[in-house]
Amino acid sequence: MHSDEAYSAVINKILSGGADFAEIFLEERYTGSINMVQGEVEGSVSGKLFGAGLRAFKGTRSIYAYTNELSLDGLTKVAERLRAVISQDRVADSVIDFRNEEFVDVCPVLFSPNNVPKKEKVRVMQLAHEGASTFASTISQVVVNFVEYDQNVWIYNSEGVKAHDRRVRTRLAISAVATKDGQMESGFYGPGAAMGFEFFNMVDPRAAGERAARIADRMVRAEFVPAGRMPVIISNEFGGVIFHEACGHALEATGVAKGASVFAGKLGQKIANECVSAVDDPTIPNAWGSANVDDEGTPTRRNLLIDKGVLKSYMIDRLGGIKMKMKPTGSARRQDYTFAPTSRMSNTFLLPGEYYPEEIIAATDYGLYAKSLGGGSVMPSTGEFNFAVKEGYMIEKGRITRAVRGATLIGKGNEVLTKIDMVGNDLERGQGMCGSISGSIPADVGQPTVRVSELIVGGRN
């Protein structure tokens, strides 16, 4: 690390080309991963990453460059390249008064990843393997992955921002495959948190393995789902991926600022049933997507997106804010220093309603119960989506009956919001990795149990 005066000089070098704004993002990261197949460790990788990303704005134009040469000379050379792109000479030799961002750490860490012996991590993985492999005779393969990182970032910019944040993440991911009568089905569970190894004081690895195996075992025994339009009850926790993908991305300034979102220009308008409220909240203590400041040094905050069906806010980064003439919401994120930041979700979920899950099921004469959702695709500009149901059951006469497989949910995100007619009181969140133009980042999804009055269910007739 260099002095504040040194970073001020680098920023002034960028500004001297006529830039309106300049920023330095510095990163130091330890990463580690262990892969276990059928109870045997097959690979273990760890390493460190160092680098810096420099950015300049001229109006709504953004120029970004990065380097792993962190000497003052290396940073200055990159700054000169940005200056050359801007290429409008002006005097910029003022001293920037950097102000430390002060905050209460929402993600304290007890046991840093690289201070925990590898054998303890392997023991956690073995417990997960045992839970999955012994769950049922149908389980034919179990793969367990242990992933961790310890990231420190420093942000300086021409507006005087000086911020530092440490982000520690730990995740255990279990994939189980079940085989029966020549058919194969898979199950997955991947809990994670912004914590160190103390995470496993909260999560039972054996139970996590059993959960992945249960999905695979039930689905390999299931019949194929009938296709058609029907009510769909989507379970809590990772069921929230449907809101994340089909609606959440369309609320990011990345698309809204360009008008490439179905929700562009709709602030203050009703976009959902009044039983629907949603937030993006990176301030939840130790949550998978939480941070103290975003990747532009803006303090994070709870962002109410939808309130009783009315669109209240977007997720906005600095550049998006300039384009939209709105203030940033602490939503700028990036995978690492090789990516320029943009508006992204953190912990995004529907708020709980008034119904018990059992009431929602009992009120549904016929439909599909989507217990767990898998991968899918979405077009943010139109909201069109399709999602695979990894674990599903039929609802008949107000009761969950037979397990079904092969279901796909098809629809439009903006239409689904208006068709949610019952919201449960059982909010839970699940963990995943979210990909977009600024790379792959940890993100929580979540919701209580909800009922969509009608969705197209792809299956077999």
From TrEMBL:
Record GO biological process: proteolysis
Keyword NADP listed: no
Superkingdom of this protein's organism: Bacteria
GO MF: metallopeptidase activity
Metalloprotease TldD/E N-terminal domain location: 22-84
All copies of domain Metalloprotease TldD/E C-terminal, residue ranges: 228-459
UniProt keyword terms in alphabetical order: Hydrolase, Metalloprotease, Protease
Span of domain Metalloprotease TldD/E central: 112-219
CC annotations in GO: cytosol
Stated family: Belongs to the peptidase U62 family.
Protein name according to UniProt: Putative Zn-dependent protease-like protein
Origin species: Mesotoga prima MesG1.Ag.4.2
